[in-house]
Amino acid sequence: MHWMEMTPHELKDFVVDLGEKSFRGTQLFEGIHGQRKDLAEMTNIPKSLVEALPEPLESVEIVKRLASKLDETKKYLYRLSDGEIVEGVLMKYRHGYSLCVSTQVGCRMGCKFCVSTLNGLIRNLRPFEMLSQVYAVEARENIHISNIILMGSGEPFDNYDHVLRFLRLLHEPKGQNMSYRNMTISSCGLVDGIKTLAEEGIPVNLAISLHETEQGERKKLMPVAARYDMAQLFDALRYYVDRTGQRITLEYTLIQGQNDGMRNIREFEELTRGLLCHVNLIPLNTTDHFSHTKPGREHILRFQRELSQRGISCTIRRELGSDIQASCGQLKAGAVAVEAR
Ligand code: SAH
Question: Contact, 319 vs 148, CB < 8 A?
Answer without folding.
Answer: no
